[in-house]
Amino acid sequence: MSGAEALGPLGLEPCTGDVPSLKELEQLLSTGRPSCNHVDEVWPNLFLGDLVTAHNRFILWKMGVTHVLNAAHGTAYSHGGQDYYGATIDYYGVPAHDLPSFDISQFFYSAAEFIHKALNTPGAKILVHCAVGVSRSASLVLAYLMINHHLPLIEAIKTVKEHRWISPNRGFLKHLRNLDVQLRQKKGC
């Protein structure tokens, strides 16, 4: 690695030299076999899933889900909202689009706070979902692990991939990589 690369793409502090490139992140994400499950527990009491699971209130009840974070809120095919789930489930909707040009980072901290509060509620379980459960929702779960559990991006990806195949789009990976840099700088490496 050259000296310029060790400083990062914008000449950032040397401690950010450990931040993986987009290519390295994409290579890591391409490993393992794709999951066929509609939902997987990727962290204790934190489930990552798709619309099939999110739209089945009976399954959610059987799973013990008390909170739902919908990363596809407001899209034509995604039900959701407090009126859909009723009083038994706390709901938070993120109107994200699975496009590389969409700035999902604007929701990193609010989503992480919702997940954190849910998981600190005794007996609570949370489902974070989007359409397929591999890009938008996965990006918000990764941000949560990075913000609240201080995992570097690579470790957050590995942690989730132990339980579910994920594939955030390239734009989301850039935002997660930037979050990784910011959190490392805040920590003083």
TrEMBL record:
Residue ranges constituting the Tyrosine-protein phosphatase domain according to the UniProt record: 37-185
EC number in record: 3.1.3.16, 3.1.3.48
Enzymatic reactions: O-phospho-L-seryl-[protein] + H2O = L-seryl-[protein] + phosphate; O-phospho-L-tyrosyl-[protein] + H2O = L-tyrosyl-[protein] + phosphate; O-phospho-L-threonyl-[protein] + H2O = L-threonyl-[protein] + phosphate
Localization per record: Cytoplasm
Hydrolase in keyword set: yes
InterPro entries for the chain: Atypical_DUSP_subfamA, Dual-sp_phosphatase_cat-dom, Prot-tyrosine_phosphatase-like, Tyr_Pase_AS, Tyr_Pase_dom, TYR_PHOSPHATASE_DUAL_dom
SMART domains linked to this entry: DSPc
Single annotated GO MF: protein tyrosine phosphatase activity
GO terms, biological process: negative regulation of MAPK cascade
Keywords assigned: Cytoplasm, Hydrolase, Protein phosphatase
Keyword match Cytoplasm: yes
Domain of life: Eukaryota
GO cellular component, one term: cytoplasm
Residue positions of the active site: C130
Tyrosine specific protein phosphatases domain sequence ranges: 106-164
Family the UniProt entry places it in: Belongs to the protein-tyrosine phosphatase family. Non-receptor class dual specificity subfamily.
Matching PANTHER family: AGAP008228-PA (PTHR45682), DUAL SPECIFICITY PROTEIN PHOSPHATASE (PTHR45682:SF3)
Annotated function: Dual specificity phosphatase able to dephosphorylate phosphotyrosine, phosphoserine and phosphothreonine residues, with a preference for phosphotyrosine as a substrate.
Protein name as catalogued: Dual specificity protein phosphatase
Organism: Aythya fuligula (Tufted duck)
